[in-house]
Design goal:
Length: 299
Amino acid sequence: MDYLMNTQQLGKIRSGSGFIAALDQSGGSTPKALKAYGVEDTEYKNDEEMFNLIHQMRSRIMTSGSFGGSRILGAILFENTMERSVEGLDTADYLWTVKEVVPFLKVDKGLEDESQGVQMMKPMPSLDDLLERARFKNIFGTKMRSVIKSADSDGINALVDQQFDVGRQILSAGLMPIIEPEVDIHSSEKSECETLMRSAIERNLSDLPEGQSVMLKLTLPEEDNFYHGLVNSEKILRVVALSGGYSRIEANNRMTRNQGVIASFSRALTEGLSANQSQQEFDSLLDSSVQSILEASNT
């Protein structure tokens, strides 16, 4: 059964000016995110306390006057965040009705061990149930990540095929998939990986039915405007870029050299934010971060 997407949100993502905030650190990456925010692992005893603290951080970002739909198109949430509330509203409803920010959900369950130069996504046996809950919670789209480390043609083709296979399942549930085959920025074969990945994406796009589209989230490439053809494809709603470990300055510099690609930054967005800052200090730094990423995206 096919479901209708929110046309207002679809229009905003397709043609809006801004970027997508990635607020989707999962269980494995949450301690690192909290530590960067100034919260040590000695300050929580278990997962529940840890997730309470990361939700406080995310809520502080989302409720800040520096965070809003005039500069931010969408926000990617972790499942735990989707199930929580912000200022008395379900998180996704708060984002859209109060901030006019389109809500997305991270749906992958992490990465398999490296094989054939890639890390595929782990199986997602409960994906249909998660997608049903996401629709109930008024989520617009999803995001799922896998990682390319070496220029192995078979591995890269298998990884991209897996992304699109799951993407079709997500489309049939009425949600917009963000397909994220990340190329490791530390790969000694980064350019070669990007060439093989782009070919695999183009092959899969040719099999998408007429009228269907997906989003792409890609590592900022070595060759400027390398994804120009994908940006202009009728089957791509939007191409967004991950910071992938680059500093905010480096990521922004690379963004400005890739026309039509917009940012979807996580660490680069929250860089420098601290639990110990006053609200004024926090808002001021977040404002400058958001503005710099916006300007880099508007190229």
